[in-house]
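Here is an idea for our session: we take a single protein and study its fold together. Which protein we use is up to you, so please pick one and set it down. Once you have written the record down, we can walk along the chain together:
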Amino acid sequence: MVSEPAPVVTPLLAPLSTEPTGPHIALLLPLNSKLFAKAADAVKQGFMSAAGQEVNGLPVRVYPCNDESTEVVALYQQALKAGAVAVAGPITRGGVAALAANPELMTPTLALNTLDESRSDQLYFFGLPAEAEARQSAQRATAAGLLSAYIVSTNTPLSKRLAQAFADEWQRAGGILRSEIVYAGDTTPLKELPQDPGNSVFLAAELDKARLLRPYITATIPVYSTSQVFAGNNRTLTNYDLSDVRFVDMPWMLQPDHPAVMIYPRSATPLPPELERLYALGIDAYRLLQVLFNRSYSSVLPLDGVTGKVTLSGHFFQREAILAIIRQGQGVPIDSKQR
C-alpha cells in the first residue's frame, strides 16, 4: 500500500524592502550572478524544500545579489535591519571572506562555504569542499589495510588540490606515498603500475578524464577517488568505464531510500549531479541553521543529513560521506566490512 505524501507547507518569501518585516530567516545568495546563478538557485531550492517541512517554522526571505564579495556585507546588514534572526549564506569563497572580515557577527549565521580561520562569534561554516572527500578517501583506504598509494592526476587546478589533500592525509596516517603520475596523454605509466599486495591508486581527476584513465589501471589494484567521478546512477555507460572505483559521495546521490533522503522532495526540474549536490547542501544548511538558532547541538548532532553524517568541530560543520563502489554501471554503497 502506498501512503499519501505529507502536505508541503510553502515558506513565505517576504518582499525585499528596507522596512522591518519581523523575525525571519535570511538566505543570501548570488542569484543575479551570471557565473553563480545556477548554483545559487539549486541551493535555494534545497533550502526552501527543507523549510517547507517545518510547519511552524519562521518565514524565509531570500536576498539576491550579483557579486557577493562586494555586496554581501550591505546585504547582511539589510537583513538584520529587516528582522532576520538567523542567516544562511553566502556561497562563494569571496563572499564568505568578505562577511568573515567583520570581527563580531552575533546573529546565528551559516556560511555555505569554508575558510581556514577560527571564530569566536556566531559565524559558522558548512560546505562541500572537494579536498575533504580526498582526505576521506585516504582514510577509507587506510582503514582497508592498504599500505602504499600512487596518485594519478591531470594537472588541472582541482586535480592538484585533490592530489595534495590525499597525499597529506595519507602520509599523516603513516601510508607510503609512492609517486604522482601526471597524465599528459601517455597512458604507459598507468599500465605499468605494480600489483604488489597493499598497493593502491588515488584517481585525482574529474569525470571526463577519470573514465578515460581507469581502463588502463590493472583491475587488481584498488582505486579510490571522490564524487568527482560519479555522475549518478542514470549514467550507466559512463559508470561502466569506471568499474570497481571506490569513491565517497552523499546519501542524496546514492541512497534514495535513506530515511533522511526520502522526506525531502526532489527538484521539479531534473538537475545535473553538481547541482543535485548543491540542492542537498541547501537542505542540510536549513537544518543546521535550525541547530544554531535553537542551540540544539547535543540533541540533534551528529546530524543524519542528506549530504552525510554532519558533526561540529569548533565553528566548522564537517560531513562524513559514505563509501561506494561502481559495479555493473551503478554506484553502490558498501559498508566498512567490504572496503
